[in-house]
Amino acid sequence: MSAASVVLVLGDDVSTDVIYPGRYMATVLPAETPQYAFADLGVFNAKLKAGAVPAGSVVVAGKNFGCGSSREQAVSALKGHELAIVAGSFARIFLQNAINLGLRLIEAPGVTAAEGDELAIGVTEVVNLTSGRRYAVRSLPAARQAIIEAGGLIPYTRKRLLGRSAAR
Amino acid sequence: MGMTVVQKILARASGRSEVAVGDVVEPAVDLAMSHENAALVINQFQAIYEGTGLEPTLWDAARIAIVFDHRVPAESPKTATNQKRIRGFVGINGIAKFHDIRGDRGGICHQILPESGYVLPGAVVVGTDSHTTSHGALGAFAFGVGATEMASIWALGHAVNVEVPATIKVNVSGVLPPMVGPKDVILHLVGKLGAAGATFRVLEFHGDAIRAMSTSGRLTLCNMAVEAGATSGIVPADAETIRYLKEEAGVLEAVHPVVPDRDAAYERTVDVDVSALAPQIACPHTVDNVRPVSEVAGRHVDQIVIGSCTNGRLDDLAVAAGILKGRKVASTTRMLVFPASGRIYQQALEAGYVADLVRAGAVVMNAGCGPCLGVHEGALGDGEVALSTTNRNFKGRMGNPASDVYLCSPAVAAASAVTGVITDPRQEGKP
């Protein structure tokens, strides 16, 4: 169990256009994308850029977080700030991108929280320490576990390639 | 138990006789498409090889397609430099399926791939774009991936750890009424399923309305399958698919449709009867916020947009030109048209559609993604309203979070251009 503060609360269907607006898509480097995380949520973006949001802080959202575009910047921008996302559910490509890049996602159907709440995030449940409510965690697709364990898709693919060339 | 189309495709691509929902497979990829985000794919591809002592090597350059469409011509030095870098990579690696910024063979990736004959029934197609679902229109299993996943595919030649998705059968029956088309069908369906209603699932389209639909219309349907969260949309290939590939896409080789088994197991069946369907509108700020046009008719529109991978094909431009010929775009609105490809642009010129639209006051732009995703041109002012044939209306989608985007068919967009307010094309022209 790790405890973390909720720094932002959003609703259902948060699209990648909200997480990382399309007009910044020419920026691709993971070192540069974090400045545009939630760029149109001015106050929160300013906090992020000012370094006022500690690593490990939590964004809580409803269903279908990350819907829309496949843009990986939406993940690398959040990863750059080491945010964790606790949401009712995630859109498929966003979920996959997050696993591939090592962004921490926790799927907890029905989760609710207010800004400033403290969450204890465990493997099987999320406890909102402020409200006392508990939410079951739905595990990520088992097929993807190997990628998470390898530390992301780049090291995972590297391992597969090396295994292949060793087998030759 | 029989298999769905996608199960059959995944079994073939994974070298198995059959697969069941939930099986984990590593399907060989037949076509891997990227656009300007190839710049990021190249970075990640090179990162994979760091410290391995291996030379970065594409698994098969002939199966990689790169199409510039999101920001064409380049809107900034940054984009132009990314595009330049990609061109260099394309040259060094001999990627022949490369479509640069050109009036003859350029355009939007989801139009270029079909019209170039790159997508065949039964193929596994991946693209670093969520609307890669479009290619299911030709009976392929096509899904969107991120840039890192594409880099992994460039190295390995297959996708890793793919769970075989469940399939929802969508039965579309009836005859589409006048001024109602494929866009209205898919908007209605997304509204019915909800934005996450098909997440991790495939939508397999059946029914007499699908069999009667052109490949262009099927592309519109499958394009927006992702707006219901679907991994992919797919229309089992048929005589129309073969006709399109032979006559319009120049495919010479034999085409082998993949059809589902009679006893294929579907998670559920959704029935849509289009006989009485009205033109549909997706209201701000989610694609599943869908209503019949009558509920929002009369609302002022500042900018009409016709085009995109969803509705920028010749039949879409024909509908718009048919409504606007000899008339004028209302003085209180402005109208932007962007064909889906250079080839379509030429066909629209030859058919006289471009002249009809320009004389009416529309601005006909180059083929590309245009204003759809708010990165390039056609931005909206604070408080402005757009009515667009594109596929997304999320807050900020067209570049300004203080604006509203409504989604509709080309017929609704063109009828509304004449009046300057959201207009039912079945009523348009009547007193």
Question: At the third CATH level, what is the topology name of chain A?
Answer: Aconitase, domain 4
CATH top-level class of chain A? Alpha Beta
Spans of chain A with pLDDT under 50 lasting ≥5 residues? none
Shape of chain B: globular
What gap, in angstroms, lies between the N and C termini of chain A? 44 Å
Total strand count of chain B, please?
18
Number of domains of chain B: 2
Beta-strand fraction estimate of chain B? 15-25%
Q: Please list the strands of the largest sheet of chain B in the order they lie side by side.
A: 4-3-2-5-6
Q: Helix/strand/pairing class of chain A, anyone? A: alpha/beta
Largest sheet of chain A: 7 strands, mixed
Gyration radius from CA atoms of chain B, angstroms: 21 Å
What count of domains describes the coordinates of chain A? 1
CATH class of the largest domain in chain B: Alpha Beta
The total strand number of chain A stands at: 7
Count of discrete alpha- or pi-helical segments spanning 4 or more residues of chain B: 14
Helix content bin of chain B:
25-40%
Largest sheet of chain B: 5 strands, parallel
Average pLDDT of chain B, rounded to a whole number, is 97
What does this structure look like?
The complex is a heterodimer of chains A (168) and B (431). Chain A has 168 residues and is an alpha/beta fold. In chain A, 30% of the residues lie in helices and 18% in strands. Chain A is built from 6 helices and 7 strands. Chain A has helices at residues 16-19, 42-49, 73-80, 92-101, 145-150, 153-167; strands spanning 2-9, 58-61, 84-87, 104-107, 118-121, 125-128, 134-136. In chain A, helix 4 links the parallel strand 3 and strand 4 (104-107). The radius of gyration of chain A is 16 Å and the shape is globular. Chain A starts with a strand and ends with a helix. By secondary structure, chain B is of the alpha/beta class. Chain B folds into 2 domains: 5-272, Aconitase, domain 3; 280-419, Aconitase, domain 3. Helices cover 31% and strands 17% of the residues of chain B. Chain B is built from 14 helices and 18 strands. Chain B has helices at residues 5-13, 38-49, 77-93, 109-115, 147-156, 182-193, 208-211, 215-223, 239-248, 308-311, 314-324, 342-350, 353-360, 410-419, and strands at residues 24-25, 31-34, 64-67, 97-99, 124-127, 141-144, 162-163, 166-173, 201-206, 232-234, 268-273, 280-282, 290-292, 303-307, 334-338, 363-364, 385-388, 404-407. Chain B has a 5-stranded parallel beta sheet with strand order 4-3-2-5-6, sandwiched between helices. The longest helix of chain B is centred in the first third of the chain and has 17 residues, at 77-93. The radius of gyration of chain B is 21 Å and the shape is globular. The model of chain B has no long low-confidence stretch (mean pLDDT 97). At the A-B interface, helix 4 and helix 6 of A face helix 2, helix 3, helix 5 and strand 7 of B.
